[in-house]
Amino acid sequence: FFEVPLNETKENGIRLTERKETLGDVTHRILMVPIAQDQLGMYYQQPGQPLATWVVPPGQYFMMGDNRDNSADSRYWGFVPEANLVGKAVAIWMSFDKQEGEWPTGVRLSRIGGIH
């Protein structure tokens, strides 16, 4: 992780940490609330890999929840064998407008029924 200096803040005054993630040829900038990093100990620890690093074995899948940092997914319970897959995502059922730390304020109707 790259620690953002303490004097750097986001507009709303929350100090963030930044890391980069490369998927294929695209590098993404990820900003995280530092306290969330304390939860890394709850992650599934793959034998032979550093904490929070996974190498997906052949015939297995890494399941990422649709709410990234607020999803209980393969980061917590490990990989899913291909034999356990029984379907394919075909549509978004429900999508809410929500700010961090607040209750959802509305339904994003434009996302329901689509795959984005």
TrEMBL record:
Molecular function terms from GO: serine-type endopeptidase activity; signal peptidase activity
Q: Which UniProt keywords apply?
A: Hydrolase, Protease
Superkingdom of source: Bacteria
Entry membrane topology: Multi-pass membrane protein
Predominant subcellular localization, coarse grouping: membrane
Where the record annotates domain Peptidase S26, the positions are 49-94
Per its record, the protein catalyses: Cleavage of hydrophobic, N-terminal signal or leader sequences from secreted and periplasmic proteins
Q: Where in the cell is it found?
A: Membrane
This protein's record includes keyword Protease: yes
Q: Which PROSITE patterns match?
A: SPASE_I_3 (PS00761)
> Known EC number(s)?
3.4.21.89
GO annotation, biological process: signal peptide processing
Q: Which GO terms describe its cellular component?
A: membrane
Residues spanning the signal sequence: none
The UniProt entry, under InterPro entries, shows:
LexA/Signal_pep-like_sf (IPR036286), Pept_S26A_signal_pept_1 (IPR000223), Pept_S26A_signal_pept_1_CS (IPR019758), Peptidase_S26 (IPR019533)
The text of the family note is: Belongs to the peptidase S26 family.
NCBIfam families in the record, alphabetically?
Answer: sigpep_I_bact
| Official protein name in the record | Signal peptidase I
Source organism: Salmonella typhimurium
Tell me the classification of the organism that encodes this protein: Bacteria, Pseudomonadati, Pseudomonadota, Gammaproteobacteria, Enterobacterales
**Its gene?**
lepB
